[in-house]
Amino acid sequence: MTSTVAPTAAAPAPSGKSTGRSGKPRAAKLVRMLPLSPAIGLMLVFLAGPILYCLYAAFTNMALTGTGAANVQFVGLDNFRKAFSSGAFTNAIWLTLVFTLISAIIGQNTLGLGLALLMRRSTKVVRNFVGTAVIGAWVLPEVVAAYLLSAFFNDDGTLNVMLRAVGLPGQDWLYGAPIIAVSLANIWRGTAFSMLVYSAALSEIPKEIEESAEMDGASGGRRLLFVTVPMISRAIMTNLMLITLQTLSVFGLIFAMTRGGPGTKSQTLPLYMYEQAFSFSQIGYGTAIALVMLAIGAIFSLIYLRGLNSEAAA
């Protein structure tokens, strides 16, 4: 007996069109990108272009006047060597870190959390008053805020009047302790942002959790440390990253209050960069300092992002 085997069906010839998502015609993808092309073009012109130009300028002797203006030459790492061998640059880095630590990491962050906790547990009248006062300082133009705070910290200003009224000696804060004065000014002006961030984070905490901790006998301080702070830890890291980056670039407030003086006692990196680039016309050197500022901000960002990632993993 012989058996016949049915012939297998021949595979269909390729049609030239793929039904998979990855096989869509390239023209269709280009059509979908057309609405984004103006935004992409603007980003290339106004963001990527200046960044690339700054990278180029930092390695040249570019200047507004003199040889560097007539004949721009590539100088390699000379601008960076000059910066790190300069006592004024080292002083500017140190003052920038002190200013950021006092006014952002300690001042705005801690005071913002305290005000958010106060507004959460207080009456409507207190919430309205605190919110208006704190946010009012935030929305003031920077120059106006600097003028008001200069008058407050002056030798004959409001702060010394209050100190002398209670028998304490006053001083000219803008001359004797300028970095402290500008740090307190930045705290006063910038705390509203931290307060709003923490108010939003605290509103997400279920009240049942805090009530359970209170019923278990936990004091207010223990509830804050072991219940509230862990539950808003991601908001804390996010807020720290944002206010740190903002504080690293503060220029107008310090410039209007002290111009970096007296001498260089309040000359942070933004003011030092401005002085070198525009007062002394050394554009290449000033741009190199700007890149150092960018690197410092990147280091802080990586630290905070690692903290955020560790919180997410936990």
From TrEMBL:
GO biological process: transmembrane transport
UniProt KW Translocase keyword: no
Record domain ABC transmembrane type-1: where: 94-304
Compartment(s) where it occurs, according to its Swiss-Prot or TrEMBL record: Cell membrane
Domain of life of the native organism: Bacteria
Transmembrane spans: 39-59, 92-117, 129-153, 173-198, 240-258, 278-305
Signal peptide: none
Topological type in the membrane: Multi-pass membrane protein
Primary location recorded for the protein, binned into one broad class: membrane
UniProt entry keywords in alphabetical sequence: Cell membrane, Membrane, Sugar transport, Transmembrane, Transmembrane helix, Transport
Start and end residues of each stretch annotated as Disordered: 1-24
Coiled coil, from the record: none
GO cellular component: plasma membrane
Compositional bias annotation for Low complexity: 1-15
Family designation: Belongs to the binding-protein-dependent transport system permease family.
Protein name, as recorded: Multiple sugar transport system permease protein
Natural source organism: Kribbella antiqua
Taxonomy of the source species: Bacteria, Bacillati, Actinomycetota, Actinomycetes, Propionibacteriales
